Amino acid sequence: MTALLEIKGLTIDIARDEGPARVVDGITLSLEQGESLGIVGESGCGKSLTMLSLVGLLPNRIRATGGTAIFGGRDLLAMSQRELRAVRGSEIGFIFQDPMTSLNPVMRIGDQIAEALIYQKSMAKPAALARAEELLATVGIPSPKERMTAFPHELSGGMRQRVMIAMGLAGEPKLLIADEPTTALDVTIQAQIVDLVRDLKSRSDMSVVWITHDLALIAGLADRIAVLYAGTVVEDAPVQALFDHPTHPYTRGLLASLPTLSDEPMSRLASIAGTPPEPGRRPPGCPFAPRCSLVEPACTAAVPQLTPVPGSDPRHRVACPVTTRGAS
Ligand SMILES: Nc1ncnc2c1ncn2[C@@H]1O[C@H](COP(=O)(O)OP(=O)(O)OP(=O)(O)O)[C@@H](O)[C@H]1O
Ligand SMILES: [Mg+2]
C-alpha cells in the first residue's frame, strides 16, 4: 500500500537578521489513505508550521528549506503557489484554530461555503447554495436553512467551528488537516466536534491529521499518534501501542501529566521540568536531553534516529538510544 502523504526530512527555517533559525528539524511522517494521525507536542514545537508548509501557507520569512512531502505522487514542497491553490480545499482541507481569522466576518455563512464550492468544484451558484445547506446539516448545525443567512458573529464558538469544518469538507478533500480546532471551546463541545469528525471519517475514506496539545482528546479519534518535540518526531505509534508502551521519556512525561479527576486544573505538564529549546538554539544530539532524567553521554553525541520499539507494535518507533538499548 502506498502512503497518501509521505513527509521525509522536512526542515523549516525562520529568516532572521542574525541568520536562519531552524524550527523544524528533519520531520519524517507518513499517512495512509483513510488513516487518522494525531500530532501532539508542546506549544512552539512546530506542529502548525509543519502542516502549513504542506499547503504553501507559511508566514513571511519562514520557509521549508529541505525534504520532500509526497502527496498523491507529487511533491507539495516543490509546487508553485498556483499549483498549491488548486490542491488547497479540493485535495487538502484545512481547519484552523480560530474560525474568526478564516471566516469572512461580513459575509453570510451560506455564501462563504457556496463560494468555496464554486471555486473548488466549479459548481453553479444554485447548486452550491443547496450543497452548502447540506454541509451545514452534515456538521450538525440545527435549522441549517435559517443559518445560511447568518453572519459568523451571530453564531456561538462551537457553531462557528462547525462552519469551519463544513468549509474544510466542502471540496471533499482526501486529507483534512485540523490545527487545534477545538482548543477555544469548552470540553463538551470539544468532544462533540471530535465525535463529528470521527463520524464523517467513518463514512468516507478521508484521512485526517489532527493537531492538539491534548493526548486524551485525540485518543478517541486517531489511529496513530506522532509526538513532536522541538521540531522533530520523537515517537510515532498506533494509539494503543503508545498508551500501552510509551517509550520516549518525553512521551512518558506527557502521559504522566494527563489530568485525572482528582488533579488541580493547573497541574498539567508539571512532571516535565524545564522548557523546550528556542528556535535556532537546539542542543547537540537529542533536543530533549537537557530536560531528560535518563540522559547519558550517547544522547548528546548524535541526534537519535527513529527505531522500532522492542516488544511493541511493529509500527511503533522512537528516537531514544536509552529506552531502546539492547533491542537490536
Ligand atoms: N510568524 C512567525 N514568525 C516568527 N516565528 C514564528 C512564526 N510562527 C511560528 N514561529 C515560531 O516557530 C516555532 C514553531 O511554531 P508553530 O506555530 O509551528 O508551533 P506549534 O507547535 O503549532 O505551537 P502551538 O501549540 O502554540 O500552536 C515557534 O517557536 C514559534 O515561535
Ligand atoms: Mg500551532
Quick take:
This protein has helices at residues 47-54, 81-87, 99-102, 109-121, 125-138, 144-147, 157-170, 187-202, 215-219, 239-244, 249-256, 297-301; strands at residues 5-14, 21-31, 36-40, 62-71, 74-75, 92-95, 175-179, 207-212, 224-229, 232-238, 307-308, 317-318. The protein is 32% helix and 21% strand.
Compute the number of strand runs. 12
Number of helices: 12
| Full CATH superfamily name of the largest domain | P-loop containing nucleotide triphosphate hydrolases
Share of helical residues: 25-40%
CATH architecture of the largest domain: 3-Layer(aba) Sandwich
Mean of pLDDT? 90
List the helices and strands in order: EEEHEEHEHHHHHEHEHEEHHHEE
Please indicate the percent range of residues in DSSP E strands (runs of 2 or more). Answer: 15-25%
Per the CATH scheme, the topology name of the largest domain is Rossmann fold
Give the oligomer, counting copies of the same chain as homo and different chains as hetero.
single chain
Q: Any idea what the radius of gyration is? A: 20 Å
Which ligands, by name, code or SMILES, are bound?
adenosine-5'-triphosphate, magnesium ion
How many domains would you count in the coordinates?
2
Strand order of the largest sheet: 6-7-8-3-9-10-12-11
The largest pleated sheet is described as: 8 strands, mixed
User: How far do the termini sit from each other?
Assistant: 27 Å
Poorly predicted ranges: 265-269
The CATH class of the largest domain, by name, is: Alpha Beta
| CA-based shape | globular
Class by SSE composition: alpha/beta
